[in-house]
Design goal:
Elements: E1 7-18, E2 21-31, E3 37-45, E4 53-59, E5 70-75, E6 80-86, H1 92-107, E7 114-116
Length: 118
C-alpha cells in the first residue's frame, strides 16, 4: 500500500468486530511519515496480522483548513484518497462511526453487525 500510515506508536481507543474483520481505532499517534494523524482505524481480516484497509483522520494542510480542520483519507491496495474534510471529524465518536460506515461500504460488509469490544 503506497499510502499506508507509518505508525511508530499509538494508543487503542476503540475495538470492534465487523464480520470477519477486527477494527481498531487508534489515537495519540506518533507517525513515521509526513502526515499528522488524529485517528486511524485499521481493518484486519481474521487470521491476518496486516490491515487491508485504513481510514485515517488527518490534520488538513493550512491552505485547506478553512474547508475543515481534518481530512478523512481511505487507504487500501487500490487507493489513498481524501473522501471528506470537516472540523467534526476530530471528534473520536463521530470519526469512529464514519470510519465504520466507510469500511463497511468498501469491504462489502453492509449487512454485518458491528460489535464494540472496547
Amino acid at each position: 500500500m503506497e499510502f499506508r500510515p507509518v505508525i511508530k506508536t499509538a494508543i487503542p481507543k476503540h475495538r470492534y468486530q465487523i464480520g470477519d474483520f477486527s477494527a481498531s481505532v487508534l489515537g495519540d499517534i506518533e507517525s513515521g511519515d509526513q502526515r499528522r494523524y488524529r485517528y486511524i482505524m485499521a481493518m484486519v481480516p481474521m487470521g491476518s496480522a496486516e490491515p487491508t484497509l485504513y481510514v485515517c483522520c488527518e490534520h488538513a494542510p493550512p491552505a485547506r483548513a478553512s474547508e475543515g480542520r481534518y481530512d478523512i483519507r481511505v487507504v487500501n491496495d487500490a487507493m489513498g484518497e481524501i473522501v471528506d474534510s470537516a472540523d467534526h471529524w476530530g471528534d473520536l465518536e463521530i470519526f469512529s462511526e464514519q470510519a465504520i460506515d466507510l469500511a463497511k461500504q468498501i469491504l462489502g460488509l453492509r449487512n454485518e453487525q458491528v460489535v464494540k469490544l472496547s
